[in-house]
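Reviewer 2 asked us to include a model.

Predict the structure of this chain.
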Amino acid sequence: MAADEVVSPVALRSERMMAFFNLAFTRTFSASFSALRVAHWGEPQCPPGRPAIILANHPGWWDGVLFMLLMRRFFLERPGFTPMDAAALEKYAFMKRLGVFGVEQNSPRGAVRFLRTAGDVLRNPDHMLWMNAPGRFADPRERPVPLAPGVTRLAEIAPDAVILPLAVEYLHWTEKRGETLIAFGPPMEARELALLDREARTERIRAAMTETMDRLALDAISREPERFRIVVDGKQGMGGLYGAWQYFRAMIRGEDHTPQHDPRSRRGV
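Predicted model (structure tokens):
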């Protein structure tokens, strides 16, 4: 075990690094997606002065970048922390400065350390714990929604917390680049969940995530951008030589240049 693994993620987290990588991740995301959109019904309802746990599904590699973007746009004043596979974290050691802490997978020792670290993080009422509830990559259509074992225990170690489901989808509509769609579900009281036995608690959390994911899927199927607000605006149009030709042609004709294949895709900016 590396020596710094025992150091609290609260002590390692750097606000300066958070600000720098917010800029870097925003640029990377904007170059790859048309937009990050939040459903109008899915804006986060997170009461201040209480620790919060965000439980998201885990559809793809972009999830870690997405967490950073959402932290900085919805919860700028609330430090966020995220568990990550310890072996993978060693490849991205800089992320320890971003509130990411390692979790040893598939071991009782790893589970105990995860719960201990999560409890330390959530003792501060301003802190937030962000995690992918399945514990593995999972298609957003997979049912029942998978949940990692440690998710059920969080209500026990942080009874004062509120728990918010977060649904995420990456997909393509009408533009060259994809869309990222998100929606937060209604908050759940950890103290109420802790009163349930673990099987019932698991099903309650799974039901909340399923409901949020299913509702977001209906909005995704609609392909109606007006159902969303744009949180991060990405690059528009084809780009490259063809994009330059479109711009030049519009300039010659004295027309406004509209790079989008479907101008509706800009709704919600």
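The chain has nine helices and nine strands. Residues 3-236 form a domain with the Glycerol-3-phosphate (1)-acyltransferase fold (CATH 3.40.1130.10). We have added this to the supplementary material.
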